[in-house]
Amino acid sequence: MQTRAAVVESQGQPFTMAEVVLEAPRDDEVLVRMVATGLCHTDITMGSFLPPEMFPNVFGHEGAGVVEEVGAGVRGLEAGDHVVMSFRSCRDCAKCRAGLVGYCDQTLLLNYMGMRMDGSQPISRDGAPLFGSFFGQSSLAAHALAYADNCVKVDPELDLTLAAPYGCGFQTGAGTVLNVIKPAKDDSLVVYGAGAVGLAAIAAAAAEGVESIIAVDPLQSRRDVAARFGATTVDPTAVEDVVARVKELTGGGAAYAIDTTAIPAVVKQAQQALAPRGTVVALGLGAEEYAIDAIDLLQGGKTVTSSIEGDSDPQEMVPRLLGMRAAGTFPMDDLVTTYPADQVNQAVADVTSGAVVKPVLVW
Ligand SMILES: NC(=O)c1ccc[n+]([C@@H]2O[C@H](COP(=O)([O-])OP(=O)(O)OC[C@H]3O[C@@H](n4cnc5c(N)ncnc54)[C@H](O)[C@@H]3O)[C@@H](O)[C@H]2O)c1
Ligand SMILES: [Zn+2]
Ligand SMILES: [Zn+2]
Question: Ligand 1 within 6 A of 192 CB?
């Protein structure tokens, strides 16, 4: 079928909206008509991170829409279902069976290679295939092919423009608190980078009753939201020593930290500002290497770790967070700003400047 997609034509280029052709769904695929697609920082990073030979490429991994057609082998979904799309997993390997679907044996092939498992590419233009199948969706497009494993069925009454970011950004931040850290109420948590991922972590920690939450971000607009969620804020450009300030605010060091900046020096600060036996979870994508203070790591018996999607299974975490939203304990709606899909580059500019937190494109 003919549809529209935001294409990154070559490495480092902005998005261009283009007419493309999408294949009909295969036996294991579903065709989804997009209503809304959240823009995650990963969609922006990929445009400069992937090698030149992996372009033109269609990204997008926070799609939300309506199922139009299902392949003959698809179970559990039918035309008309409303779905939030997330990352793919095989649901059959040892990690998947243990519930750790983000670490599936097939993760790379299922999510990042720009093609289906068999090497075919479902999106084309003028007969030439484009890279796609990103997170089993490539949902920066008016239509996408997805799978039963990465489509989470949601209530048709739900506003899909508000639900789209649950497929990645919100799930990652909240999952890191709910699945990875599991803080006690009297544990302190410092979040470096109060974008969509960091703010979701802060909201989830607040929902869990964590009393000491600190948000570090140079952008006033982001610190303002963090403060509204109950965090004490630090402007890293206004204090002389971020580590000293965080230690002061946490009475000697934080039990936990989450980094969403992917800046090596910030990950190191986060580690240094931990209390002995503290843990920092680095979530950011984009750095080739992180800096670690080896002496501090050893003396403090600290842990530097990471997580894919907050160790979430989207089939469990997306409904759980939507339930918290409905109960009023995960108040993320105000962070969403909608854009007509063809204003994707404006959305990128606004999230980069900090003018908005979570841009969502409407198709
Ligand atoms: N691990 C995963 O599974 C996963 C999932 C989603 C996103 N990500 C990654 O998480 C990161 C965050 O995504 P996002 O959508 O929230 O991005 P974002 O750009 O909205 O947020 C990053 C924030 O970091 C802040 N920042 C910049 N310099 C800083 C500094 N020196 N100290 C403190 N804060 C600073 C920015 O002002 C911004 O608010 C990205 O790298 C993204 O690729 C990872
Ligand atoms: Zn698996
Ligand atoms: Zn993402």
Answer: yes
- Residues 6-15 have a mean pLDDT of 97
Residue 347 phi/psi, 5-degree rounding, is -60, -40
195 pocket-lining for ligand 1 (C-beta < 6 Å): yes
CB 90 within 8 A of CB 110: yes
How crowded is residue 272: how many other Cβ atoms within 10 Å of its Cβ?
Answer: 21
* Residue in this structure with the two tokens 């990950």, named with its chain if needed: 267
- Mapped onto helix, strand or coil, the DSSP state of residue 308 is coil
pLDDT digits (tens, 9 = 90+) for 230-256: 999 999 999 999 999 999 999 999 999
Ligand nearest to the CA of 200: 1
Angle 80-82-88 from CA coordinates, rounded to 5° = 115
- If you ran DSSP here, which 8-state letter would residue 57 be given? B
